[in-house]
Amino acid sequence: xxxxxxxxxxxxxxxxxxxxxxxxxxxxxxxxxxxxxxxxxxxxxxxxxxxxxxxxxxxxxxxxxxxxxxxxxxxxxxxxxxxxxxxxxxxxxxxxxxxxxxxxxxxxxxxxxxxxxxxxxxxxxxxxxxxxxxxxxxxxxxxxxxxxxxxxxxxxxxxxxxxxxxxxxxxxxxxxxxxxxxxxxxxxxxxxxxxxxxxxxxxxxxxxxxxxxxxxxxxxxxxxxxxxxxxxxxxxxxxxxxxxxxxxxxxxxxxxxxxxxxxxxxxxxxxxxxxxxxxxxxxxxxxxxxxxxxxxxxxxxxxxxxxxxxxxxxxxxxxxxxxxxxxxxxxxxxxxxxxxxxxxxxxxxxxxxxxxxxxxxxxxxxxxxxx
Length: 371
Ligand SMILES: [Zn+2]
Hints:
10-stranded mixed β-sheet, binds zinc ion, 37% helix, 14 strands, Alkaline_phosphatase_core_sf, Alkaline Phosphatase, subunit A, two-stranded antiparallel sheet
């Protein structure tokens, strides 16, 4: 037995404990200060992609529950989507809440009514990003002037006001506006710019954009607007967009909207699978400093009501017949999922209002809201 008197062993232990404490304390403080920040944010928005739609689409595609990439993301929450004036939101109020942190009335795009009814524009995350010199992108398989993409870059009282939405796209309030623009609505753009005495070609060229119809253009220019009237392959277009935006060392904000309305049930559910594939691919390429979020602006009246497990669901499902998947053609008011990975994603948990997504994105970037 070594002859250590009891007091001396005790004092040695205390000394050792104190030494460990002094070593550990600054390390812990340092960790707390250096909570990992996101450099980039990619917000995937499944328009009308409620839980029931995602569930049915995944089973229809894979004949397995919870087989989507979205359903493997580490952090999830349930987000209230109600509008300021209605329990069931439209895309305008739904997206305004997500990207500005303010609930508003249906049909209003990044504008909020005051007590006297006067409308005030509210600043979107994309505008904060432009102000700070980040690169920004808006990609959608819907018209580029539609409420969901427009809430990122425009402020109008009525979502139908295409003329003002196109004008504001090229007259940004912060930075030089959206750097990569990809969506549908080319004919609408022609009509809107013609009404303003110009053409989309001239207007976008004057604003410094490479302008065309082919998403392949994105790889050739850091400032590109691609407007078309037909569908495009989602994943290559989003990869090219990220390739351009990621050149900015300050980081980027990208919003990708994919239409999951199931008034055409097979079309809507196919879009769920397309976006899921896109998120899987992007998650592999985006890097550890990217916060990736998936959510919906509102849910939709699709329900799985039947189906046997021993036969592929696609063989059992006939959109014309009830009994397997039925659709009531309407937005619905229940919560939607938020799924997230990357720095700041641990804030995505529990039941939350849709406005909290804005706070989570700002906090992940380490930014404070304007007073
Ligand atoms: Zn919507």
